[in-house]
Backbone:
């Protein structure tokens, strides 16, 4: 660890004490911020994990629904049936702050154009069920994207905060403490030298007055 270049004076000592106090205070605040960010990150990851497990099951059900629909429908008719949308969606993105970290909040508005975008004459009930199931899966996918974006941003901020805490704890604060010790030793040494000189001057004055 490199030592600070200092001038061993009382003014410098006072400045370093102030810097040390501010560094310790900043270290406490950043440590608290890091801990809270970690708590928020863990909660977000847990929620995302649960939602991903739900989506995994729902995606399998949705996949099986389309497979069943394809098995009982003419491929050409099925493709034509799915060409027209049954709804229009609008994804809105807002921001919220978590410990000074701006994270996205997604909202999804769906405007239905029709309940089913095709006629019932040549399609199967299995296709109807699959189409109806898509909306709920899409909503959960958007929520999962929000949670994972939040987790990623929190992770980046945790890493930045961790580096700052480590820099203060292992570099700045020890440097200031070491510099203050050296100043104190130098000032004590100067005081002892001054006291010695005064004693010699006093002895000289006493001898001269005899």
Residues:
């Amino acid at each position: 660890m490199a030592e600070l270049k200092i001038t061993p004076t009382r003014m410098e000592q006072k400045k370093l004490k102030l810097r040390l106090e501010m560094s310790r205070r900043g270290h406490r605040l950043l440590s608290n911020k890091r801990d809270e960010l970690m708590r928020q990150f863990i909660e977000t990851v847990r929620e995302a994990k649960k939602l991903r497990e739900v989506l995994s099951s729902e995606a399998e059900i949705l996949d099986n629904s389309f497979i069943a629909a394809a098995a009982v429908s003419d491929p050409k008719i099925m493709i034509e049936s799915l060409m027209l949308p049954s709804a229009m969606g609008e994804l809105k993105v807002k921001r919220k702050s978590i410990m000074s970290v701006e994270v996205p909040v997604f909202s999804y508005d769906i405007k239905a154009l029709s309940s089913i975008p095709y006629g019932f004459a040549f399609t199967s009930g299995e296709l109807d069920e699959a189409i109806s199931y898509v909306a709920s899966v899409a909503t959960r996918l958007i929520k999962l994207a929000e949670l994972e974006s939040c987790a990623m941003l929190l992770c980046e901020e945790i890493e930045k905060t961790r580096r700052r805490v480590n820099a203060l704890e292992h570099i700045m604060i020890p440097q200031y403490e070491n510099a203050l010790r050296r100043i104190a030793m130098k000032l004590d040494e100067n005081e002892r030298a001054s006291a010695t000189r005064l004693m010699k001057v006093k002895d000289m004055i006493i001898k001269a007055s005899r």
